[in-house]
């Protein structure tokens, strides 16, 4: 299942690549990307290829914060029509939810979630792009969200914490310059920790008339067909799996249809609920197994009732036990 991302994700890539001594066209060719993606922000390109491009660029230039440098210049307008819709929402909370609701139009590999409790708001962002390091893509992703929130909350605003799952860089000075000193590495998620007061903040730019226009434009841009049933089911699975209660009945309830309709629509797209569930779990497992999360937590996040059930499933899927994979994986 090949996930796609808008080529706007590569905004300013060529300029930064050249400034760090790289040949951007040669690197695009290496990962199989059409150079036209540098000029057409709405082109849909494989998210895995973008991940590989950013990692290769960081390695080739010796610039460990390559992805974060790309995020430094991002604007809300880089989100295209999704940015236009978000800009007209009345509060920052509604802005964030709008960006998350339409996130698949920007990046099909992105799973984003807003969690609020006891005055704290956590914005989690995870990229499911298969095997391999995603440091650069994750730093670009979190940096873009940070920049977008600054647009609404003002230049003096900073989050309570900025979290990355990967280890710290040798030189964290850019992270500190962008985010302040509340940056934590080796965490169990990538994202931002804010306050619910930040989310309550009004958006003075919101205009109800423009909001209706923006939504109409978004509908016209995406077409009447919208996303398919497979993508809709995958998105709901990503939300429900950590609860341990992830049945086709619950997914059907979230979609507002019955389970037989879910079955029928998935069959029409050439798959089944079990296959979609298994592919989603595999992608998550490949992502989580390369993190520092305990295996018991990985089992919980994938919706398994016990570590033993996860271990049996993992060995069946990947031909080795999860612990063995961690022992032989290369150091970051």
Structure explained in plain terms:
The protein has 332 residues and is α+β, with helices and mostly antiparallel strands. 53% of the residues lie in helices and 10% in strands. The protein has 18 helices and seven strands. The protein has helices at 13-19, 24-31, 47-61, 66-71, 81-87, 92-101, 103-106, 135-153, 173-179, 196-200, 208-222, 229-240, 248-255, 259-268, 273-288, 295-301, 307-318, 322-328, and strands spanning 4-6, 44-46, 110-117, 120-127, 161-163, 183-184, 191-195. The strands form two sheets. Strands 3-4-7-5-6 form a five-stranded mixed β-sheet. The chain has a two-stranded antiparallel sheet with strand order 1-2. α2 crosses α3, α5 (81-87) packs antiparallel against α6 (92-101) and α5 (81-87) packs antiparallel against α11 (208-222). The longest helix is centred in the middle third of the chain and has 19 residues, at 135-153. The protein starts with a strand and ends with a helix. 36% of the residues are buried. The model has no long low-confidence stretch (mean pLDDT 88).
